[in-house]
Amino acid sequence: MGAWLLPRTSGENKMKDAFKHYFDVRYLITLKEIATIGTFSGAAKNLEMTQGAVSNQIKILEKTFNIKIFERNSKGVALTSEGASLLAQSYKLQKMMEETYNLFGISSDGKIRTIRISSGQIAAITCVPEAIKSFRKMEKDVEFLLETANALTCLTDLQDDRADVAVVGSVDFNEFRNQDEYIINKLFERDIVAIVPPDHNLAKRDTVSLDELLKYQFIGRRYGSAVQSRVDDVLKLRTNVKNKARSGSFFENSSSIISAVSEGYGVSVIADVQVRQFEKKGLVKTIKLNPPLPKIAIYAVMKKNCPYPLAHQFFNLLTKFKSVDV
Fold it and tell me: For residue 47, what are the CA distances in angstroms to 34, 69, 282?
């Protein structure tokens, strides 16, 4: 199932550099609307967005391509020559997208009917699928783009406009800046448990301390994981134990950790809900931690100024899953 991760490579940095020129393709719909109507306010009204959101999308396009797209005149705005060139390219791109939709029997009216979700693994197997299912009963033609990653990656996607909604197990990262610009709602909490191979000498125990667990080969997560941050918080004043915890192997996601533990490569900790089905199959054994680690809370996060009404509707529905039995 899982595979051992190699050390971080320059390829990841190259990918990060590539995203400096990233923009949401939906901004081209905004560009087309402004060019057609001739005013930012008119485009905002038609797209059911705020004028500020419309202006911000054009600024992002201008920054991405290093051009000026519109010039003001007595009637509103008009395209510059560079803006006209970008609009021409956008028509080509939209035509290609429509042809792709048609290829698979999907109609596209050019309106923004896609919600992008960046989710941690706990939320991706609990509240997010249920929220999507419920939302589709109200808005049947909405498409969802769901990506799973660690908490920090999800929050970065949200910051960089690669996601409309993030659902994560932690918001306590230095990289997640200007939190007052976001709506952050706590949904629910889960326990963190120890996980060992079924034939491990700890497997018959009812409880185990983190110190005892760390005497064995410990499988951790890379920086950015909500669960790993709980471990690090507990160990931050115990340097000798922390170094022991950091001396093991590191994985990107919980699925890989479960696979590695089941194959006897080591022990780890994980949110209880993520490992239930594997324990039922006899692949791993879970043990309560005593003393317990702080529970992992799941948060729904979105920008206050997110310009897409559908994203706000979905976010509001998602927050109703606070008391759902997961």
Answer: 10, 19, 52
Alpha-helix runs per DSSP H in the chain: 10-18, 27-37, 40-47, 51-65, 81-103, 121-124, 127-138, 151-159, 210-213, 226-235, 239-246, 254-262, 272-280, 309-318
Strands (E), 238-295: 249-251, 268-271, 285-289
Decide: 159 and 141 in contact? Cβ < 8 Å: no
Query: What are the φ and ψ backbone dihedral angles of 299, each rounded to 5 degrees?
Result: -120, 140
Whether residue 295 contacts residue 158, with contact meaning beta carbons closer than 8 Å, is answered with: no
Q: Which residue has the tokens 């209880």?
A: 272
Instruction: Characterise 253 by phi-psi region: left (phi > 0), alpha (psi -120 to 50), beta (else).
Output: beta
In angstroms, rounded to a whole number, what is the distance separating the alpha carbons of residues 25 and 81? 21
Amino acid at 286: T
The per-residue pLDDT for range 106-138, each reduced to its tens digit, is 665 555 567 889 999 999 999 999 999 999 888
- What domains appear along the chain, each with residue ranges and CATH number? 22-103 (1.10.10.10), 114-189+297-323 (3.40.190.10), 192-294 (3.40.190.10)
pLDDT digits (tens, 9 = 90+) for 36-48: 889 999 998 888 8
Secondary structure (3-state) at 303: strand
